Each structure stands twice: as C-alpha cells, then as structure tokens.
Amino acid sequence: MSTLAKEPIFGELRGCEWMWRWRAFQLLSVTTIQPAFETERLRLRPFVLGDAPVLQRLAGRREIADTTIAIPHPYSLKMAEEWICEQACWVIGGKSVVFAVERKADVQLVGAVGLRNIDREHAQAEMGFWVGVEWWGNGDASEAARGALCFGFGQLGLNRIYAHHMVRNPASGRVLERIGMRREGLLRQRVRKWGVFEDVVLLAILRADWVGDAAAERHGSAPAAVRAGEDASPRL
After folding, report:
1. For residues 100 and 79, what is the distance between their CA atoms, to the nearest angstrom?
2. CATH number of the domain encompassing residue 200
3. CA–CA distance, 143 with 41 (Å, rounded to integer)
4. Is a pLDDT exceeding 80 seen at residue 99?
5. N or C, fewer C-beta in 10 Å, the chain?
6. Of the given ranges (16-20, 142-146, 223-227), which has the lowest mean pLDDT?
7. What does the alpha-carbon distance between residue 63 and residue 67 come to, in Å, rounded to a whole number?
8. What distance in Å separates the CA atoms of residue 145 and residue 36, rounded to the nearest whole number?
9. With 70 as the cut, is the pLDDT of residue 46 above it?
C-alpha cells in the first residue's frame, strides 16, 4: 500500500473539523477552476467564505427573499456560509456556477449572479441573480446579468439561457428583457413562496440572438431595451 493511501489528505480529523477542512479544500478548488472576470464597472468572481457576513446582511433583507425562490428569511450567517460551500460542490460537479458581484470602484460585494441546472446535452442553463437593496437603481443587475450571458455563451458554449421571474416582480423581467431575453410564456402557479402559489414568467435568449444583439450594439443599432438604464428592484 502506498504512503498516500495510508495517510488521507485530512489525516485523522473528526466531525465538524473534517467537514470544514473538506469545505475549505472545495473552495480552494473552485477559486482555481472558476475564472473571475470584469465588466465595465463590475468584477464577477467566485464566492469565498470571507464573503459570508456581507452575504448574510444583503440576502437577509426581506425584500430580497420576497421574490427569490431559494433564499429563506430570516437568513443566518451559518446559512450564508453553508450556501457558499454548496456552490463549490455544484461548480466542481459541473451543475452550476455562481459569481459574487463586486463593484470595482470600491470593492463592495453587491449581489450574486449565476447559471444553474447546466444541461450539457442540450447546451442550456437557467440564469438567476439578485442585487442588494441599497444597490438598486444603478445598473448593477443588468451589467452582471449581461456578464453571465457572455460567460455562458462564451466559456460554457451554451446555446440557450433562460430565466424566470414572478409576475409580481416585473423589475426583474425588465432587466432580463434589457439583456436581450424574450418572453416565452407564463407558467401558472409554478412556484410556492411562503405558502402562496405564484405565477411565473419564462424568458430566454439563444446564442443566435446574443450574437445578433452584440453585432447591432457594435454598429449603434441595438434595441432601446438593450441600451436603457436600470429599474428599481432587480432580483430573481
């Protein structure tokens, strides 16, 4: 038996100590395999455990949880830490990729954007995003979502990226339309949030749409929806 086989990477660790060492190893792996990149005003990078306190403060606002499916309320620091570690598992498994949205000017974490349910066979994925309440209204959601499109179509080679938003959250719909997504349908009572079944709008963009929009923007003929500013409450 080899020496490596005799001595596990985490030695004789037990219980929580082993778990946190394993999670640290996963996060280190993610920062190696998941690239960070920049848009005009933002930096999109992997989450790290040090982001947990700010993540908890931002995502802990009831306004954020109200129209997002996966964020509970209240949202504890432990939940934030566990969520960050879960992202590492999903990235390593190729199931999703989530980026911390950070402003370059002041290095402030302002939200998250990502692609989940990555389907390699059919070359598609679902986009999700949210931006902290204090950062609403300045274009961060649209810029981050547009960056996620570039990553999905460019780095991942996807053909279709889709997204959902609750009918009662039209601001997220406007962000999605602004980045070139088109409405594909209404899913009646598709999700249940806090005991209430909610209607959901489905939007999507194809690689061909994205290439065409990019070409139009380069030539100054992009649709007004692509060039417009930010709406008040971007979250999905």
Report:
1. 16
2. 3.40.630.30
3. 8
4. yes
5. N
6. 223-227
7. 7
8. 15
9. yes
